[in-house]
Amino acid sequence: MAKACIQVLPKNPQYFNVDNVRVAKILGGGVLDTQVVKGHVLTRDTEGTIKHVTSAKICVFLNGIDVAKPETKDQIVIKSAEELLNYTKSEERAMEKVIKEVAESGVKVVVSGASVGEMALHFLERYKLMVVKIPSKFELRRVCKVVGATPLVRLGAPTAEELGFCDVVTVEEIGSTKVTIFRQESEASGISTIVIRASTSNTLDDFERSIVDGVNVFKAMVKDSNFVPGGGATEIEIAKRLSVIGDSTPGLTQYAIKKYAEAFEVIPRTLAENAGLKASEIIPKLYFEHKKGNVYEGVDVEEGSTCNVVDKNVLDLLWTKANAIRLATDAVLTILRVDQIIMSKPAGGPKPPKQGGADHED
Q1: Distance, CA of 182 to CA of 49 (rounded, Å)
Q2: Which of 1-15, 49-63, 80-94, 186-200 has the lowest mean pLDDT?
Q3: How far apart are CA 310 and CA 316, in angstroms?
């Protein structure tokens, strides 16, 4: 994951975009088969028979490659077989002219955003052009970003500025799935793809969520690289200091402060319970160590006890933790305000109608 992020890291790290790190899920194999590709990976095959191209100029068409259809419905009366043959040949000549112009511009790979007609595919094969069909507009946009191409809405020969370039465009079989890879080797790629492998779909989904979390941590890290101890050590230290403030605060406010401090115990408690440990034993032990001054003491899920988490490189990003605490606190305050509004509203249903009839003369 870190390798994929570094590949697409801009000169100014503040402009790092998490969408530039993509994930391709392929069923089969194991976790160790996961690999990083400098470029974009499509989990589909090409349309024609050409499967490998190097140093390729790429042309991208948004509306597909097919015979143009009229905007309005019309009828064509054909009276003989010769007229039918001439009509078909005129379509073929028009399509061949377009494909020939594209091929003469130096294009080796044609990317279509919609359907590719049989006649168009025939001439694309004749002129040795690789054809890649990408129905998704989002995937098409990412391919344009990788190769530096401009998507075209018209069917015809592209200009030099509209063409993209890619070092290698190839079809490989990973497991039992054929994938099309746009790989940039010599130049910096705008997108990096992590091809993850697993034996079940649920495991693939779990890995994808973990990678998304890691990429967002990387984004936060390039903004603020400060870390704090993990494993619940930071939360216990905050709870301990808040409890001290609560003890020295007079009035009913101290109960709110102590309950706020107690809420921070949920992190080490959850870590202990998920590891099969007794939270009722771990939490008091953490408080004991922190009162002795061991502020780096956290939950050790491997040994089933507590340890110095900094020595084991268990760290949390300060920016993420600070925002999580702030948002959680704001949410609780909002809920308390709503409860206070509901409680202050007068109880009871609609008021009963007034007794006695109205004076019609008035």
Answers
A1: 17
A2: 80-94
A3: 10
Q: Are 40 and 164 in contact (CB under 8 A)?
A: no
User: What tokens does 298 get?
Assistant: 């956290």
Is there a contact between 149 and 123 (Cβ–Cβ < 8 Å)? Answer: no
132: Cβ–Cβ under 8 A, 6 or more apart, which residues?
Answer: 42, 46, 47, 109, 110, 111, 112, 143, 169, 180
The pLDDT assigned to 340 comes to 62
Radius of gyration (C-alpha) of the chain in whole angstroms? 32
Query: Whole-number mean pLDDT of the chain?
Result: 84
Highest mean pLDDT among 210-214, 338-342, 344-348: 210-214
CB atoms under 10 Å from CB of 277, counted, come to 20
Instruction: Return the number of other C-beta atoms located less than 10 Å from residue 169's C-beta.
Output: 26
Q: Which amino acid is at 212?
A: V
pLDDT above 80: residue 74: no
Q: Do the bridges between strand 21-27 and strand 35-37 make them parallel or antiparallel, or are there none, so unpaired? A: unpaired
pLDDT reading at 315 higher than 60: yes
For strand 39-42 and strand 177-183, is the pairing parallel, antiparallel, or unpaired? antiparallel
Following CA atoms 149, 154, 155, 160 in sequence, which dihedral angle do they give, to the nearest 10 degrees? -40
Give the mean pLDDT of 277-297. 90
Distance CA(121)–CA(169), nearest Å, equals 18
Q: What angle do CA 4, 10, 174 make, to 5 degrees?
A: 25
> What's the pLDDT at 83?
66
Count of residues in the chain: 362
Sign for the CA dihedral angle at 337, 341, 344, 348 comes to negative
What is the pLDDT at residue 270?
Answer: 92
Q: Which domains does the chain have, with CATH numbers?
A: 2-67+88-223 (3.50.7.10), 233-344 (1.10.560.10)
Name the residue type at position 74. D
**CA gap 117, 94 in Å, rounded:** 13
Tokens of 261: 């401090």
pTM of the model as a whole = 0.69
Tell me the two tokens of residue 135: 């129905």
Q: What are the residue ranges of helices labelled H in the chain?
A: 2-7, 81-104, 118-126, 137-147, 201-223, 233-247, 253-263, 266-274, 279-291, 318-344
